[in-house]
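Hi R.,

As promised on Friday, here is the backbone we talked about, encoded as structure tokens. Could you run it through your design pipeline when you get a chance and send me back a sequence?
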């Protein structure tokens, strides 16, 4: 088992039993949840700022992309310290008391500094990996980014060094408190829905990447 070493920022004290530093578990959560929240202390104002964006993982790092005109992305590219979090709710834990009612969830928190990926070839390879994670085969069906578009885009890497997952799962733990009260878990199901063509594509055959979705 490969684990990330706990640090002063990633060690969890309250609810420590829910902490997980296992690399495979953290990778799986990052791969399953495509949105992340990135928080920084604004270097100009000293005030906290955050942004929700889409990330993807390749090996032991996560990546994001965005416009070079964005002040937020400029701060990230210049080395602003960040806290990155992802989270998903998996169920409502219906306990026998209001105090013990909670949710089941999976979350990951990462600390570190983003670094720009400079080489265009590496940027393109990473963007292809991003599309392959979202919808395998789609990258080959669409127009590739132009040189002008690439020049206007940051691709940023955050190595996974300080990372921790916190996971809550299972039934209510107050079953002996009030056995006459019903308790249980209501699962929360998340996933992709149906695909619908836009106006100009309604008479076109479905591309292979979309056809494969129906086979799952």
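Update: got your reply. Pasting your designed sequence below so it's all in one thread:
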């Amino acid at each position: 088992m490969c684990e990330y070493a706990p640090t002063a920022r990633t060690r969890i004290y309250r609810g420590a039993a829910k902490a997980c530093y296992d690399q495979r578990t953290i990778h799986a959560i990052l791969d399953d949840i495509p949105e992340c929240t990135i928080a920084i202390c604004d270097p100009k104002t000293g005030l906290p700022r955050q942004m929700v964006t889409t990330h993807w993982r390749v090996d032991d790092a996560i990546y994001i992309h965005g416009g070079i005109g964005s002040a937020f992305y400029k701060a990230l590219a210049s080395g602003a310290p960040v806290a990155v979090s992802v989270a998903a709710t998996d169920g409502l834990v219906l306990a026998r008391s209001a105090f013990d009612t909670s949710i089941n969830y999976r979350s990951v928190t990462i600390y570190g500094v983003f670094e720009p990926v400079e080489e265009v070839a590496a940027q393109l390879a990473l963007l292809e990996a991003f599309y392959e994670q979202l919808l395998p085969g789609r990258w080959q069906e669409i127009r590739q980014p132009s040189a002008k578009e690439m020049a206007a885009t940051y691709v940023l890497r955050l190595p996974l060094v300080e990372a921790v997952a916190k996971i809550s799962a299972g039934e209510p733990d107050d079953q002996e408190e009030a056995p006459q009260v019903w308790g249980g878990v209501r699962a929360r199901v998340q996933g992709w829905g149906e695909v619908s063509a836009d106006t100009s594509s309604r008479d076109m055959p479905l591309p292979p990447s979309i056809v494969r979705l129906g086979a799952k």
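One thing I noticed while checking it: The chain has a mean pLDDT of 93.

Thanks again,
M.
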